[in-house]
Amino acid sequence: MNKREKIRNDIIDKIIKNTPENATATKYIMEILGISRVSAYRRMKGLIPFTYEEIILLAREMDFSLDEEIELDSRRKYIIEFGNYFYDEVSDIIFKALHRYYTHLSINQKMKKVINFETTNNLWFVYTLFSDNLFKFFYYKYFQQYHIPSLKLKMKDIKIPDSILDIKKEIVDVIVNTHNRTTICIVDRNIFFNTINEIQYYYRRGLLDNQELKSIANDIKHLLTDLEKGAIEDVYDGRQYQYYLGMRNIYSNTSYIQNDKQSYSFFYQDNLHPMICYDQQMCELHHNYLQAHKRQSALISGSNEELQIDFFEKQYGYIENLVEDKDLIVC
Q: What is the pTM of this model?
């Protein structure tokens, strides 16, 4: 069997394994690819090859990894899933990113055990899902960044579509009802400062009014309180947490996820949608990096009380300075 035949057979095996029990593989790929029964049959028998675009679509819809199936050359190229958002409207980009996150959470909710190992140097969009005002600020911020004509719009001029509010609620419901996840989080010492500094920038430009500023600050305070409870109690709302305070800089938000079936990594170039890698060697490198970073960090969950108190007092101080419109200085 040559290399091309092995790749073809590996992909066909993956399709068969990921076909729902109440369907045949041929009929299932007919629906996904929008092709005739004869065309689907010939592909499944290996008589004609799948196109690259068809393989990508099947991998996305049937949730299997291409990196594990396709043998890449010695230079170790990696296939990264980023999402086809490039030509969408801003609200559609945000909706698709949130829906992708919802799908990710829903799949992991069915697993026996999920480990989420992450580094974070600023608040992720998904951290705002329990906070209406902070969520709206993030939505507004992305709207400005991705939609140039909106640069002069104020936050009160922006209305969040019902579709986004609905998917936000669905994500919250999944999170609240998921109790199989352990989260190990290495937090940058300036995680809240970075976000608060952004909020102050918009406020001083006159794009947020006083009431909006206070409402957002109040949401951040609630979020910080939840983080503090998680750090003190280890288990919060039925979910296990281990928080570490980074002793060296964290340059981006990343997450390594391991469930019953596979491991994969999220890399965030911005705060909205991640680049997702399923290649196991790449994920292992990422996991090793996180382990090394953890050894150079200080555990604050249930320990290091003095360091814990110092960290949270500084964060609350940043919030007070934001509300009082004082210049923010890293402590």
A: 0.76
